[in-house]
Amino acid sequence: GHASCNCGLAVRVDDDVIVISKCPSDKTMTQRDTPVSVFMHRNGELSTGFRINKYAQNKYSVFLPNGDVVYAQVEATGSQFINVWAVASGSAFNNTEGLCGNFDKERDNDFTLKDGALKGKTES
To answer: Measuring CA to CA, which residue among 31, 75, 30, 68 is closest to residue 47?
Structure first.
């Protein structure tokens, strides 16, 4: 696998979005100096089952209605990155696709792009 450097993440369910960010808001700030912010953008009532939990100083869990969970951990004070990982629920088995994988026990079809092509693979 490949690593990426994340300063923030957004999780969407229907028209609701939860954003956890350490991205600088202007060019005078650095990621290292930027505090963590959590925003919730919603249209009316928040989707049932969609919630966020802060369970340690800089650790967050975002729960989705289908049982999936997205975890975010801001590294120690002074760090500039957020570690992000997703855990799919059993209901997602054989019912998902995309860059996080297809959750069908077939590693060869993971990392599917929007156009249906597999990342890192070329047709011959």
So the answer is: 68
What letter does residue 32 receive in the DSSP assignment?
A: G
Task: Report which secondary-structure segment, H or E, holds 114.
Answer: none
Cβ-proximal residues to 119 (8 Å cutoff; 6+ apart), any chain: 99, 111, 112, 113
Which element (helix H / strand E) includes 122?
Answer: none
Name every residue whose Cβ is closer than 8 Å to that of residue 124 and which is 6 or more positions away in sequence: none
Structure-token pair, residue 13: 């369910």
pTM of this prediction? 0.72
Model confidence at 124, pLDDT cuts 50, 70, 90, reads very low
CB 73 within 8 A of CB 53: no
What is the pLDDT at residue 61? 96
**Per-residue pLDDT, 54:** 93
- Which residues, in sequence order, are bridge partners of residue 54? 60
d(CA 57, CA 50): 21
Cβ(6)–Cβ(84) below 8 Å: yes
